[in-house]
Amino acid sequence: MSVGCALCDGDGGLVIACTPQFRVVRVVDGDEARRFPAFYRLIWNTHVAEFSDLTVADRHACMDAVADIERTLRALLAPTKVNLATLGNVVPHLHWHVIARFDWDSHFPAPVWAAPQRDEVAGGAAARLAQPLGAVDSAIAQALSR
After folding, report:
1. What are the phi and psi torsion angles at 45 (to 5°)?
2. Which of 36, 76, 137, 145 fits a 20 to 30 Å CA distance from 125?
3. What is the pLDDT along the chain (146 residues), one digit of tens a residue?
């Protein structure tokens, strides 16, 4: 734990699944949640800054979980693309972004952090998803429990 670290001090979103090594959250606050409702983060529980700080076994567990989240998003939502990112420039605590992207989203094909390419979806992006987010959350939790 690191004092002043946003991911040590708080959950980082709506907790979907928790293991001894990491937690998976869905981003529920701010523009990211509104524009990209299927925006998940895998957050390592202990405060480490870099992926290479993990043991070999932990690196495998981390990437297996990222792949499980991606597979679940692809199966339930059929996105145009799934974006994976681990930046840590602003919050130097190991976390992976796993974001279902669609050709109709406000920023596609640009990154979610870029300028919008078009207006937001009328009625909200979540309304365009193939499955309700609660069902997606449950499926991710189930995939990670195997």
Report:
1. -70, -40
2. 145
3. 676 889 999 999 999 999 999 999 999 999 899 999 999 999 999 999 999 999 999 999 999 999 999 999 999 999 999 999 998 788 889 999 999 999 999 999 999 999 999 999 888 999 999 999 999 999 999 999 98
Cα-only R_g, the chain: 15
Q: How far apart are CA 106 and CA 94, in angstroms?
A: 27
Q: Compute the Cα dihedral for 74, 58, 37, 141 and give only its sign.
A: positive
The residue whose two tokens read 């939502």 is 77
Residue written as token pair 């195997």: 146
Among 49, 41, 1, CA closest to 23: 41
Name all domains of the chain by residue range, CATH numbers in brackets: 6-145 (3.30.428.10)
Predicted structure pTM score: 0.94
Note the helical H segments in the chain: 6-9, 30-35, 56-77, 133-145
